[in-house]
Amino acid sequence: MPIPEDVTGDEIDKDVRQELQSLPKTLAEDVAKNLVMVARLIDEEPERAYAYSRIALRLASRVAAVREAAGFAAYATQKYAEALAEFRAARRMTGTVELWPLMADCERGLGRPEKALDMAGAPEVQKLDKAGQVEMRLVAAGARRDMGQLDAAIVTLQSNELASNSVQPWTARLRYAYADALLAAGREGEAREWFAKAVEADRDGSTDASDRLAELDGVEFMDALGEDEDQDDADTADRDEQGTQDDGDHKD
Fold first, then answer.
1. What tens digit of pLDDT does each residue of 12-36 get?
2. Region Disordered: what ranges (predicted)?
3. How far apart are CA 195 and CA 132, in angstroms?
4. CA separation (Å) from 31 to 88, 94, 168?
5. Is the dihedral of CA 221, 226, 228, 233 positive or negative?
6. Nearest-10 Cα torsion for 142, 185, 163, 177
7. Is 139 left (phi over 0), alpha (psi -120 to 50) or beta?
C-alpha cells in the first residue's frame, strides 16, 4: 500500500524506534512507516489501518510493537480473534500486563463474557496501573451486562474512582458507563444525573454523553436544512394545487 511522502517513520515513539533497531536499517524504516500509517488511520479509517498493520506484521512479526499495533488494528475492526492472538503474542514478548483489559474485552467480543470476568479477577489486574484497573472494571461491567446481570454491572462500576470529584482521563467513560447501566435498569433519574456528570468530565468529546442527556431532557435537534426543504416542498405542492384549481375555474 502507498505511503504518503510526508511519512518518514521518524514519527513513531522512541521506545518503538528502539525495538526496530534489531532490524536491518531499510527494513526498520519500512516497518516504521507502516506503523505510522496505522496510528494515523486507526480512529477514522480502521480498515485501512488494519491493512497497513498486516504489512508491518509480515515484515517484522518478531517485534512486540508490531504485534501490539496489529492487535489494536484488528480490535478496531472487530476482528477479536486476531486481536486476542496478537495481544497475547505481544504480552509473551514483553512480559507486561498492560494489554490485559483489552484481551478480556476481546473475550467479550468473541461471546465469552464469563472468560472476561475470570480475567477481571486474575492476579494480573493488581499489577495494572490505575487507568488499567479502571479499564478492567469497565470490561467486567460490560461482561455482566452481556450476561443480563444489570444490577451486578451497576455495582461493579461503583468505586472510589466513580465517586471522586477529580477528573482523570478515564472519568468521562466511567461515569458514562454507569449512567448507561442505570438507564438500562430503568433508573432514569439517576442516569440523567450521571450523564450530566459525564458531560462535565468529557473535555475532548470522547463520549456522546451530551446527546444522551439531551434525549433524556426531551430536546430534539431539528435539521434546519431539511426543515427548509420540507417547507419548500409544501409550498410547491400548494402552488401546484392552486394552479390546478385555477385551470379548472378557467375551463368553466
1. 889 999 999 999 999 999 999 999 9
2. 219-252
3. 23
4. 21, 19, 34
5. negative
6. 40
7. alpha
Find cell 518503538 and name the residue. Answer: 16
Residue 123 burial (10 A CB sphere; 0-12, 13-18, 19+)? exposed
Structure pTM? 0.82
pLDDT digits (tens, 9 = 90+) for 96-111: 999 999 999 999 999 9
Section 37-52 average pLDDT: 96
Look at the chain and count its residues. Answer: 252
* Alpha-carbon separation of residue 48 from 40, 113, 130 (angstroms): 10, 29, 32
Compute the CA torsion angle 69, 71, 73, 74 (nearest 10 deg): 160
